[in-house]
Specification:
alpha+beta, UDP-n-acetylglucosamine1-carboxyvinyl-transferase, Chain, 2 domains, 4-stranded mixed β-sheet, 15 helices
Amino acid sequence: MDSKMRINGGKPLMGTVEAQGAKNASLPVMAAALLLKNSSLRISRVPNLLDVNTMADLLRSLGARVLFSDHEMFISIPDEISWETPSDLVRKMRASSLVLGPLLARCGRAIMPLPGGCSIGSRPIDLHLKGLTKMGATIELVHGAVHAHTKGLSGGRIYLDFPSVGATENLMMAAVFAKGETVLENTAREPEILNLVETLRSMGAIIEADGTGVIRIQGVDSLHSAESRIIPDRIEACTYILAGAATNGEVTVTGVIPNHIDSLLAKLEEAGAQMTVTHDEVTIHPSGRLKGVSLKTLPYPGFPTDLQPQIMASLCIAQGTSVIQESVFQSRFLHVSELNKMGAKIDIQGNTAIVSGVDRLTGADVVATDLRAGAALVISGLAAGDSTYIYHLGHIRRGYEDMEEKLKSLGADVEILPAEIDGTRESQSSVCRES
């Protein structure tokens, strides 16, 4: 049975938390291990999350040996691996699609059920398939599954119609063994991409990437054992910074790379927040009520769509009106109805949310519809004046390690309780495939 989180809000958060390793860097780095043969990849600073454990199970199902303890992961790849992915694991998590490129490059073929959609909107993998086809793969869709095979991938120029993170990662991994040079243009520029680049280089890949949106890969014949370190999770770090701002508290997040979160820090400064930023930590100071701001989600280095729900929760109690335009996913406003249950005043007009700040929020029973929506409800619950109950915590555990313990260390009154079986709540999907 799923659990629920009770939050007795209205208390300023005070204290220090350390950022976890990045979920969205860990998953592609783990998938990259499939490119190895009779070799291994040791990864440090891996967060203990549902998604990470799902990816570990997927790698095991393909023949890998995966050991994971105390944020250290060891992945050993034998000479022969399976090229057919099990549907039950792929459909749990959209990031499972990241094994497609490595399997095609390593085995010459792959069968993968199409990852399911997510409540935040449709995210087809057509850019992945289009790029792989251009590299020489033959791809067919058979009964809802991708059947891909090749007699050998070849390099070339591939322009992405949209700077998709997943497509960039998949094509980059596939190109490692492609004949000649592959040039990827209009690629994603997220820090997690460069974390994968560094990992592939440590394994013996030849890659040029400087964050400009152009990545060049020279094909090699084989890779070797290596080690990798996961970067800090910028989305998790920002969630705690926003929780501090929403509760008018003083929260320090350590182990971060401030340059990775410039877009949020700039918006918080515009909203009147007082902060101290050093080379590896950020402190949000008590600043009173924030002021309303306008923002638009964009690919990195723009404002991340993965922070849109959380900053919306913080702006619900800001002075004045905020305008939030979602340009990345077409259905990422499912948290709005839950926030409005708590007394927020949010009006949706197409892909834009108009947030009219209120003096205070009130506790309510709310449902986490996806990972980041769940984080937004936690922030609003911490800011509300009484008790909030958040259901379907499985979504939150996909991306936040030990969230309740971290919140308690900051002085929050938080408790995890069994969720009663309730027809209304059980009708909500408890599996989200957001990556």
